[in-house]
Design a protein that fits this description.
globular, mainly beta
Length: 383
Amino acid sequence: MQTNIFIPTCWMFLALTSTALAQRTWVVDAANGPGTDFTEIAPALTAASDGDVLRVRAGDYRPWTTSKGVALLGDPGAVIHLGIVEVCAVRNLGAGQRFVLRGFQFVEDYPLNGADSYFEATQCKGSVHLESLVEGAWRKAFAKFDHCDFVTVAHHASSRRFDVVSCRVTMHDVNITAGTVDFALPSPALGLRDSYVEITECVLRGAIGNSYVAPSPAIIATSSAIELRGSKNSSIAGGILRQVHAPAIRADATSTLRIDPRVTIVGSIDGGVVTRERMIALEVGGGLLSTSKIYDVVAPAGDFVVIFGALPAPSLRTPIGELWLDLASLYVVGAAQIGASGMWQITTPIPSNPSLRGVVLAYQVLDIGNAIDLSNAAVVILR
């Protein structure tokens, strides 16, 4: 029997987000329709202040670079066109600031492989959050993260890899099937160096092989720590050539891998220090205003679990796991004792308030059983 404790969170939610509401919402519209503030993104970023939201209507736009903690929210049909060496970037984001990028499609103006990626985040002390983005066809990587304290990627599907150097990253509900763009080098879904990455409810596949290049592992790691959490929907698979898979993961001797046995691994694990253990996992769906959020928890039967919500914060290492929540804004979403299925789902309402658009919330579960453990962080951008 499963015991549920639902905590009415509407007022707590409003109290939490009142300090995170946008200072101002700017409208960017290439067609210069009613209510337009700017027709391009770059000048809107120049005018914006930390905490502002830029709503970008459908249309064609040029690339940009910023160091501000703003939310860039693309309506359906918002497309960023990149020249041969152009890239969108956030650099030197200050501590305590949050940068959000959601809902854009990237397109190359020319079918030439100039810049390596579509988006870059570099030297960021604040947090960087990506969600629901679409890439073009020619670049080797979708995104590069370099020396960033807190990066999240959620609800994203891609055929281009992510390159991560000296960062702390959490990936949730991400599907990457790496394509073979570079004929000289393997193309993993995820390349890591000197980083900590938490991967939950994700599907990562290395590039298939061909006459010029061998199939690639899904993950290539150097001096990194990886946690693979999730249910049967999570899988890590090496690329394939002539019915032979590349390793699912290739890691050096200094890398550590903590893997939940429910995650499907296709191909070998070459290198690294591997620990296999069941871990609590959290997935959060929904996100539209005036609808609800659905929380799915995977945990051992009989354990008592509590879902917490808060504004996101750079991870804090604790004896029970990585804490990604801002303690000053912490509130309880709900609690339950896990039933025999090993899963628990609850739904909570989200207040209908347009001023909440672009607010970033993070959720984690505290699991109390034979041991006390924290789940992954599930990060959601309100729409």
